[in-house]
Each structure stands twice: as C-alpha cells, then as structure tokens.
TrEMBL record:
Its main location: membrane. It comes from Aspergillus minisclerotigenes. The keyword Transmembrane applies. This is Nucleotide-diphospho-sugar transferase. It is a multi-pass membrane protein. It is found in: Membrane. The chain crosses the membrane at residues 464-488, 508-528, 571-589.
Amino acid sequence: MSYFFSKHNIPHVVLFLCRVRIYVSVSSSGLMTPHTTVADISPDECCGEQFFTFTSAKGELAPHLPRLRLVGQNDLPLVEIFVPCCGESLDIILDTARAACAIDYPTARFSVTVLDDGNSAALHKAIADLCKIWPNLSYHSRGVKPNAKVFAKAGNLNYGLFEIKRPFPPEFIAVMDADCMPTPDFLRATLPHMLTRSKLAIVGSAQYYYNLPDGDPLDQALDYYSAIKIPQLNRLGKSFASGSGCVIRYSTLLKTGGFPTFGSVEDVTLSSILTQSGNQILVLTEMVQLGLVPESFEGHVLQTSRHKVGVSEQILTWSPSTSNTIPPRYRPALGWIGLSLTWKIVVRFITNIFIPLALASGQQLVPTTLLRQQMVLAVLYISSFWLYEWLRAAHTGFRVSTFHHLREWFLATRHMYALLHFYLFSFQSSSKWPARSVVTGSTQNPWNLPTASQSQAKRFHQDIFAPTVLINMIYFMGTFVTIGYSIWSCYSENSDNDKLFTRVAWPPMLLLCYLILTSSFTPLRCSIWPLRYPNRKLALGSHPNHAQAVFPKEDVRLAVMKRQRPPLGEFYHLVLVPVVLAALMYFALVV
C-alpha cells in the first residue's frame, strides 16, 4: 500500500484511478480485455524500480563505500581464499590461483585453497608444482560423487569450510570463482570495511569482466546491477554478495551452518539469511576482481537461465518438507525473492504474446469516455518514465541506458521454458542447469566448444535458427507488422484520431511496443553481426607483484572502467521520444 500511494507514483496512481472509474461507468463489457490488463500491468515493473529508488534513499548508509586500504605487514587478520572449480580449463584455474597467491598481503597471513570438484589429476599436479613457489597454496578434492546435488558449489565450499584441517581458524574466508582473478590489493581493499564494522558479515565486490565484446549488446557486464542496484542496496546494508570476490566473516558463517545447500544460488540464499539475522552486507563498486563471461550467445542464454531457475527455486523454501534445510524464520523472505522474479518473467512472456494480438485484433484497448483526459494523463505518465530513466542513466555516467533493467526482456521465453522444465520435469534440483558446480569456462559446458572453424555463413544459419533467435524474430516481426496494420486500419476507415488513440497510439502501448521491438532485435543483431570476444591470452600481461603470475593489462582494465552507453541511444533514436510525446499531447489537447 505504501508503494501505491508513494509520492513518486502520482502519475501512475491518478491514471489508474481514473481508468478504474471509467471502466466501472462504461456499460460495454468488451472493453476490459486481457490486452488492456497487460498494458496496465507491464509498466508496473518500471514503477517498482522507481519505488525502490526512493525507498533506498531513506537508508542510513553511504551508497558507495569509501576507498580504504589496509597498510602495514604486522598484526593483519588471517584469511583463507577458496577457489572452487569443476572442469574449467586448466590454464584458467591456474591463472586465478597464481593471481590469488600474488596478492599484496603477507604470505604467512593468508592461504589459497583450490577446491576441485572435477577431481582433475592434471590440476592436482599443477598445483603441487606451484606450491614450490607459493607454500601457502594447497589443493583439495572431495573425490568422485554420484549425486549432482552433493556436487553443488555450496557443498564444495562447505567441504573446504568444515572438512579441511588447519592449524588455526581464519578470521575471514574469501571466495573467488575459478574464472575470476583478484586484483593485487583485493584483501587490503576489502578487509578495512570488515575490521571497522562489527555488524558487517560480507563485503562483496562488483563484477568486472575483461573479455566483453564491443558494445556489450547482451549486457553481460551486469552494468545495471553494478551502477544502480549495488548503491541502492548498500544504503540499506542489504546487498547481495555474488559468489565470487567476496570476503565473509568466518565466525558468522559458522553460526549460519556454512553455505546453504538449498538450490544452486547459495550466494542469494546466504545473503538473505544473513541480512534477516541482523547482519549487514555491503558491496564495493571499485574494481577488485576481473572475470570472464561466456563467449557465445547461447552460453549467455543458458547461464542466465540457470541463474533464473535457481532464484525462482527459492519459492520452494515455503515447502514444509523435511528435506528443506532452511530455518523456518528465513523462508518467507526467500520465497518472496523467488516469487517476484518468477512474476516478472511471466509478465514479460505474456506481454510478448498479447501485445501483437491486441494490435491485430482491431479492438479498442481503452474506453472512449473522457478519452482526451485519459490521453493527457497517459502522456504525463509515460513521460515521467522516460525522464526518470534518462536522468538515472545520466547519473551513472551512462554506464547504463534507458530501461536498462529490461535488457533481458528478449530472454523471457527461454527463461519461461527453463522454469517450466524445472518445475515439471526436474523438480528435485536446479543443479541440472547444468549438473554440478560448472561455471563459465568449464569444458563441460557444451556452449564453450570451439566454433572458430565454422564459416560465417554456416554460423549465421546455425544462429538464426537457434530457439531464442527464432522466437524473438517472430516477436519482432509480429509486433512490427501489427503496428503497421493497426495504423493502416485506423486511417483506411477514415477514422478520427480517437480511434488511433484507443489502439496503437495509446502511450503505454507505444512504450511496450518500443520495449518489445528493441529487446527482440538484440538476438537478431547478434546473429547478423556476430559477437567478437577479445582473445583472453592477449588481454593478459605480467602481474604487477609476481613474474610467475598474469593479470589483465592496464589498457584492458581502463577500457572496462571507461565503457559508456550512447546518451541518446543507438543512432540517436531517443531524440524521437520527446517529439512523439509532444505530438501526442498536441493532438490530445488541440486537434
């Protein structure tokens, strides 16, 4: 209720109440169609973003943590760095292990533990050789286990936490994914925050990637989360620490029973449990780690699908089953996290289908009663969205674009399929997406198989008929054609502007059409102009601290930090937005 009557939401509330009054007063029963309902519900995701922005502004903490550094060599806390892996390329794992060992921190005060669920003899031997250079490095494996659930990443981390014998318990545990290299000052940048805030359970770090393609059309860099969500959540002390590049207070982790083994998103589950327990979680926005993204379109699709299924699976924490290991007092919040994500996917999926159908039906989508007044309110309503989105993008230095939180819209159908597949056919564990703790660079991931030998024509043919590309081609063409049909049908009947206003020119409908067209074009664009990922080895240079280690070159790191989206959109198309809105307002008031 506080969301509905919040100050920022005035245009939405006024428009909604007026339309409810009109629907009640109109006698025709055919006006309130499913298409209209979708047009009303879909923009609510944008309203929710605005509401959270204003809510987080009330937080007492700073959105960006100050840049602190731990100095000196004496009396420093004892830290153990876990590097969980399972089948990733040997050179990727070793590069991460070397970079972790080369951190600027006294060797006697930290250790690096490689936790190998792949049970690789080659990796075991390679780590043994590196131990001659770095005596604080070690290799551990649980061996071959038949149960995929046991092999989940959380189980691997818990093995390192509870089963490995160590002379002294560490004060802090750090976790680095096998394809994420820490910066030399990783510990000196994160530990000061832990040492000065007793309630702080985890210090996470924003994800930065050194193998992004030009323009990052798939938003693999997660810029929206790094530039907008992290500062908002930091204000509340309730950030979600990702599974890599985080430092965790050892004593707090033991009190919670280690890493949660429910589902495949142990980082989300652990973060929620800790914040509900009164602990704080903050995330650094400065660069203290650099990782890899999947180097193919299909790899990105499957990786995001696996993550969505894992988050949606939190709904099952509401189950009273004896196999549910989550304490009852934490289940409501976790279930809502899963339910809210599932609802977003369902709404996006339905919107993709119903908007073209609504335009093709030829029906009016809004009542004609007080139509001009409705148009004025609707234009103000949508104008507030555009203004808010552009100002928010400008505030980040255009690291994000307008409606950046909706850039995954084109994946709605694949995500919907993934959810249905999980709940109907693989209910036991989302770890089947894929099995075991496989991450980006794993050779067990089928999307990472080399395809460089394919001809461009063969690759285009393969990509264009990929399920995600094909379904988005249907959405794009269906929306584009029905927009043209709706405009043509209005003017072919010599109708006035009112008929156009009740169909395609209804402002919320225009916004949804824009979102569907721009989002569904993304996979088509990636098929026509294939993504070109930089060569990983060429991006690496000598490590600043050790000749035996490698690290992304300085120019690569600077390029990652300086990435920017076009302020007026690609091809300056955002210039048309105020023109169209002004034209709609003019026709509503004058013509």
